[in-house]
């Protein structure tokens, strides 16, 4: 199965990776804690408690906390916009430096004449 392009581009951004790792860690920790608690309560089997949500429900809740396709797209668009703004500032700085160097060269050439 090929990964959709939006997933591949989303995984390229560190903030998106971090959010996914945090959500997966949260889900894994919740399930591990529940299983450890049940195991300490009974040594033989690990039955699901009747008064609590099932492990599948907990996993569904954790998966629901993952960013949606729309949220990922918005995050990517925001990061791209930030990158474009940085590139524009850098281009402006480079142009100003080049103009300054050209003026300095013109002054030096005028002095040497």
How is this structure best described in words?
The chain has 113 residues and is mostly helical. It folds into two domains: 1-67; 69-113. Helices cover 79% and strands 0% of the residues. Helix 1 crosses helix 4 (69-112) and helix 2 (14-41) runs antiparallel to helix 3. The model has no long low-confidence stretch (mean pLDDT 75). Keywords: Membrane, Transmembrane, Transmembrane helix. The chain crosses the membrane at residues 94-112.
User: Topology as H/E string?
Assistant: HHHH
**What proportion of the residues is helical, as a percent range?**
over 70%
User: What's the helix count?
Assistant: 4
**Main sheet makeup:** none
How far apart are the termini?
Answer: 72 Å
Strand content: under 5%
> What are the segments in which pLDDT stays under 50 over at least 5 consecutive residues?
none
Radius of gyration: 28 Å
> What would the average pLDDT be, to the nearest integer?
75
What is the global morphology? rod-shaped
Tally of structural domains: 2
Got a strand count? 0
Provide the structure class: mainly alpha
Transmembrane segments: 94-112
Keywords: Membrane, Transmembrane, Transmembrane helix
What are the salient characteristics of this protein?
rod-shaped, mainly alpha, 113 residues
Task: Produce the secondary structure layout.
Layout: H1 5-11, H2 14-41, H3 55-64, H4 69-112
Helix pairs in contact: 1-4, 2-3
Transmembrane segments: 94-112
Keywords: Membrane, Transmembrane, Transmembrane helix
